[in-house]
Amino acid sequence: MKAGEIPAFFFMKKNFLVIFSTAPSLKVAEKIGSALVEEKLAACANITGKIRSIYSWKGKICREEEVLMILKTRKELYSRLEKRLKALHPYEVPEIIALPLTAGSRNYLEWILKNTG
Q1: Is residue 60 part of a domain?
Q2: What integer pLDDT is reported at residue 87 of this predicted model?
Q3: CATH number at residue 28
Q4: Within a domain: 3
Q5: HEC-encoded secondary structure of 13-69
Q6: pLDDT > 70? residue 12
Q7: CA distance 39 to 16
Q8: In angstroms, rounded to a whole number, what is the distance separating the alpha carbons of residues 7 and 54?
């Protein structure tokens, strides 16, 4: 292993997460995504175009247009990212779903590692 190289075992322990969160608009998602990337809580924030969400809230069925954020981060940053996302988000109960990233290109995973706090 070369100096500064990340050991292979690090990439096999599910140390990375993909997080999904919806937002009411592109403007809100960009604000949240930018803050998380600038603060190095996420390496990347992908924001989709409009999606249609149907959900139950306080006894009513709601149908809303939202946008989806897909965030890439390290597992050890999850609690900080969740706390910050909640602070920035206008929803009373924002969607925050984290899935383990079980495989990925080593170069991309190294990039995530280098671009998060």
Answers
A1: yes
A2: 98
A3: 3.30.70.120
A4: no
A5: CCCEEEEEEEECCHHHHHHHHHHHHHCCCCCEEEEEEEEEEEEEECCEEEEEEEEEE
A6: no
A7: 17
A8: 44
Token output for 55: 């959900």
Asked if residue 16 is part of any domain, the answer here is yes
For the chain, the domain total comes to: 1
Type of residue numbered 106: R
Residue range 15-58, pLDDT digits in tens: 999 999 999 999 999 999 999 999 999 999 999 999 999 999 99
Q: Please tell me the distance from the alpha carbon of residue 5 to that of residue 70, in angstroms, as a whole number.
A: 27
| Cα separation, 55 vs 38, whole angstroms | 31
Starting at the edge strand found earlier in the chain, the sheet holding 60-74 runs 44-57, 60-74, 16-23, 97-100
